[in-house]
Amino acid sequence: MEHIVIIGNGISGVTVARHIRKASDKQITIVSAESDYFFSRTALMYVYMGHMKFEHTKPYEDWFWKKNRIDLKTGYVEHIDTDTSSLLFADGTNLSYDKLIIATGSKTNKFGWPGQDLKGVQGLYSKQDLENLEVYAPNNQACKRAVIVGGGLIGIELAEMLHSRHIPVTFLVRESSFWNGVLPKEESEMINKEILNNGIDLRLSSSLKEVISDESGQVKSIIIEGTGEEIPCNLVGLTAGVSPNIDVAKNSNIETGRGIKVNRFLETNIPNIYAIGDCAEQHEAIGNRRPIEAVWYTGRMMGEVLAQTICGNRMAYKPGHWFNSAKFIDIEYQTYGWVWAQPKENEARFYWEHESGKRCIHINYDKNTREFLGINNFGIRMRHEFFDKVLTEKKSVEYVLEHLADANFDPEFYKLHEKEIVAKFNIENNTNIQLKKKSWKRIFQTN
Amino acid sequence: MKTIQNIGLTLFLAGLTVFISLIFIGKYEVTPQILDELVSNKGIKSELFINDMKAHVVGKEFSNPFSFSSEITSALETANETYKQNSEWGKVIWDKPHSLSYEIAKKSGTGIVKENKSLFWWLTFGLGILGALMYIIPNVVILGRPGIKNNGIWFDASMNRGWIGWFAFVFLVSFYLLLYFRPDFIVNWTYVVDPISENLSGNLASQWFLYGFLYCTVMTVMAVRMYIKYRHNKYQILRTTSVLFFQIVFAFLIPEILVRFEKPWYDFKNAFPLDYDFFFSWNLNELMASGGLGLFILVWGVVLTLVIVPVMVYFFGKRWYCSWVCGCGGLAETLGDPYRQLSDKSLIAWKFERWIVHGVLVFAIVMTGFTLYTYFSGTEAVLGIKTQTIQDIYGFLIGAIFAGVIGTGFYPIFGNRVWCRFGCPLAAYLGIVQRFKSRFRITTNGGQCISCGNCSTYCEQGIDVRAYAQKGENIVRSSCVGCGICSAVCPRGVLKLENGPEDGRINPTEILLGNDVDLMDLLKQK
């Protein structure tokens, strides 16, 4: 029986394992050094915040793996011997494979800051990071102040986490506005306000110069680049992005760049070795996507596709329309299609913001063809299926506005803003779009 | 703000302490007149009991309810035993010992509580309400800006099965045991609400009036907490208002006012088989003797169960009843909300749930079948089993132990829907309709789920919501009461409760939305 070994028990590795099991009878082993069982990485923040216990982050009960004949092995892979098709573990043991899937995920970026490896300096990615956080920032007595370096999704999550335990937070963001390399100005500013309104000391256009140690090798303070300001703190969160965790492939014949190089079929240069998820790097980017996509959803999608290939139905990774989501403290965010920070030459924008300043939508469309290209929605939930269909069928921006009621996914009885949104569009564009009433028929045709 | 909360907590605990200590104080003295009245009102022919009462109880002063109760119940039991042995059935007193003891205690109590009913209302209910509100209302500021703020729930001993949770468990269980089985111990509590009862129905308060009033009070105070916690969520606000309205108006005010007009006590929203004694002969006889209104109630009760309930479930799901109207649901959604994360999400718990809840439904139907057969045929037993016996077993096991002691008492341990999930026969019935013939579902939003588990953690019915959401499947489960919290706590906007066409309501998916379109088509064809 063919033995499939998967390194990494995150969403990519577990998804590919589950789908191989669905489609075949192959022997499957998942190897992890991080945790005994699969857990949802995105939920680590809720454990620290006391919303959940670590147990709750496990999407499958512990009996699930045995029942589905997926072997779990705890161990750290030191070396991949591609000639003998075997793995060498840190404890000296070996495991041979017929096909190997590398799904090792990411690790926190460190840009060579002095003091970046001190105690109390950490990212927020792994289970171990969560455990360290309990050591260095259990409460506001042990941690008088925390400094977070890097204004992205993990940075704001860490800020929210520490804030929930009443630990004062200074948030250093290199850019002139939060995540403005991805978000357009309006949305970015809305999140700046949300951060400030929660009493977080947001420092825009600020970078870390160095981390200062105390006598015991623990962080004591940080110094800001340029101003030289010293901020005393007991925890430094490094959240300036992540990069592929490819240590396992070093000193092997597997081709690597920033990540493990794969073709469209998620195959590496070595036959029978594949890479998926955060650690995989496409030779050439797919569409407007980045060659490395460190996103929950794309990891899952790669796992779904690769399982087909492994089970004899060779299939290229062709992700559908881009989508993503996040929550910025109290403001939920979803995006479907592309809304760049800066419009491209052929693009026009429509922006609507609610008077509360906590809800908005931003639509991107082609100003010549009127084709709808993407939407950012903040504080309003939208139907994935609706936008997936609109993007596939290349509908116009007018069509989207006309059917905005179909797209809304807010809970029942929420105040709806479609009329206001359409009215604003009509005024700005001299159009006469009439909002259609929500139709179940249309909504369910999208299936 | 913290100071206000601490003062509130102190006041609340003071009120609770007074409330508990009321059990242990008070004086009881049965005068000859009280005994005479009792004997003539109830037509008691048990000389042994009367003599025993005269010898050991009448004219004596008891300084606590326990010795008083034990004298009366033992007098009753000894007398009954003798008559039963001698087959002098006419002289047996069929009242439950502690109910009779309650009746006597209610009349013969004296002392500080009975003389200062309003004062003690303020010292118990008043302090409790004031203290609780002072604890709850500062959360407007403390919890932070509107939004989901479940911070620290799993670190809190009151909400993570810590020592406060266990204390609450002991208190609630004891409360229900007293209420159902030792009403004669809590006569003082009923004195406290006498003035309110007299204003409403004209009668002195029974332990059931006390329970009803306490129920409404607790729900109202804890609804304030809901309004604050979910002030950003209109579904939660409306739902809380609705259950509160139905509890206060339908389960409390209307029945009491009916009694004032000498009509039968009836809760118009309480549907059979939750209202398990609706078809009991005493109820049917009472309704038929109550003229037009009685007949209306009779018809209404039948139509409610057979037509209104299933039709509404078809259109809106069982939530219309369980989390918008029902009193049990109302308590679970207000008092019980802090405990919702404690429900067991494992597969094995789901198996237990299905066997038990459907077992209770079958039990209720069989018992009612016996009841109706007996009623129309006039025989006392069916297949050799006495109908009275099976009714008593149901009343004891399900009506009292399951619905009360376990159903509410276990909130702090097993989560706030213990009764609704494992025990309620009406919920089982609605669940069957919801699962097989309804427009209701929780829609999963394409591929947006990140498997974080907030939905499953906070599902009070122990549904592993994530198991569906992460596969892109809609949630169609018989036990879902549509409280809407999974949707509220979801950080990515994945879940929406909605009523839509039945087509495509259950949508098994292999591959999630967002992936290769060809792959999705391929697997759909398979």
From TrEMBL, chain A:
Coiled-coil region: none
Q: Which Gene3D superfamilies match?
A: FAD/NAD(P)-binding domain
Q: Which Pfam families match?
A: Pyr_redox_2 (PF07992)
Q: Which UniProt keywords are listed? A: FAD, Flavoprotein
Q: Which GO terms describe its molecular function?
A: oxidoreductase activity
The answer to whether UniProt assigns keyword Flavoprotein to this entry is yes
Source organism superkingdom: Bacteria
Q: Which cofactor does it need?
A: FAD
Ranges for domain FAD/NAD(P)-binding: 3-285
Read off the PANTHER family from this record: NITRITE REDUCTASE [NAD(P)H], PYRIDINE NUCLEOTIDE-DISULFIDE OXIDOREDUCTASE DOMAIN-CONTAINING
The family classification in the record reads: Belongs to the FAD-dependent oxidoreductase family.
**Name this protein carries in UniProt:** FAD/NAD(P)-binding domain-containing protein
Q: Which organism is it from?
A: Bizionia arctica
Organism placement in taxonomy: Bacteria, Pseudomonadati, Bacteroidota, Flavobacteriia, Flavobacteriales
TrEMBL record, chain B:
Q: Which residues cross the membrane?
A: 7-26, 119-142, 163-181, 208-228, 240-259, 293-316, 355-373, 393-414
Any one GO molecular function term: 4 iron, 4 sulfur cluster binding
Q: Which residues form the 4Fe-4S ferredoxin-type domain?
A: 440-468, 471-500
Alphabetized, the UniProt keywords read: 4Fe-4S, Electron transport, Iron, Iron-sulfur, Membrane, Metal-binding, Transmembrane, Transmembrane helix, Transport
Q: Per the record's keyword annotation, is Secreted included, yes or no?
A: no
GO CC field? plasma membrane
Per the record, a Pfam family?
A: Fer4_5
- On whether Transmembrane helix is a keyword of this UniProt record, the answer is yes
Q: Which domain of life is it from?
A: Bacteria
Entry protein name: 4Fe-4S ferredoxin-type domain-containing protein
- State the organism named in the record: Bizionia arctica
Q: What is the lineage of its organism?
A: Bacteria, Pseudomonadati, Bacteroidota, Flavobacteriia, Flavobacteriales
